[in-house]
Write a structure and sequence with these properties.
mainly beta; Lipocalin; 3 domains; eight-stranded antiparallel beta barrel; eight-stranded antiparallel barrel; 4 helices
Amino acid sequence: MKKYFALSFILLMSLAWSMSRAQGIHLNAQQLRGVAGVYQSVINKDQYVEFSVREDQLVAKLLWNNAELHFIPESELIFNSREAEEAGPIHIVFHKDSSGTADQVDVAKIGIWKRARDYKPIVRKEMPHTPDQLKPFEGLYQLQNVESRFIRFTERENKLILKQSWDGNEIFFLPETELTFYSPVIPAFVLDFTKEKDGSISRVLAFKRDVWIKTSKIVMTQDVLKKYQGKYRSKEDPDNQVEIRAGNNSMVVKQLWDGKEITVLPWTENYFNNDTQSYGLEIVRDKNGNLQGVRLLDTNFFERVPG
């Protein structure tokens, strides 16, 4: 009996500790201002985060995309994010220098960020331009070495619009120079295009990191697409099946659980998309090139049903 009482007591204490940690302690605005300021990533010098105090809360603004996180204090220097990622809340620890000033923050699983005492906000200036000057940048771009990641650029109202294929989200850009564009909403989001000798645009570098290659329009006949016809079932839930029919330069995906049909067009030989619905279909093959199935919406794998 004592054994079970002791075990229950330990479990209750563990639960209470977890709850107290999740709820945090209360710090007033003056205490929170001790860690407020702009910090720069040691790993990526182009990334800054600004900690500010808002209604007795510590708020972190990611200056490269304007996303915000709200932090709950565990102590005066230790905080956990209210928003949780797949691995749980983000745990951060501030450290002080010899004068007692918070000069860096350690972000769990990400690294050290140092206080940027001489930080100056990015100021961008739009270059005079016309819609015709933006037209050469239009088109579909594929993330280098990634089969199913695409962005599309179109000119609209004298702005260059970036549309993400995976979620349909749009961001507009303005030219700062002939080949460099920026987002007025997220000034740190910069696009650097590459122009070839013939004047054509061949690629774009986003965030000084991600290379996107401009693709050419592809046409596939019905005879070529017929090899993908048939039924496919979800690997996770075999009761969920889709049926694929081949058309001329298109395929129709019919969801057998609700009868809904989506028409997708080829963007590459192995990737199809419905741009309006942000619905992607990737052809999945084994190492020998044999058809295994399809991946829908980037994550859901459906294996081919024999027959």
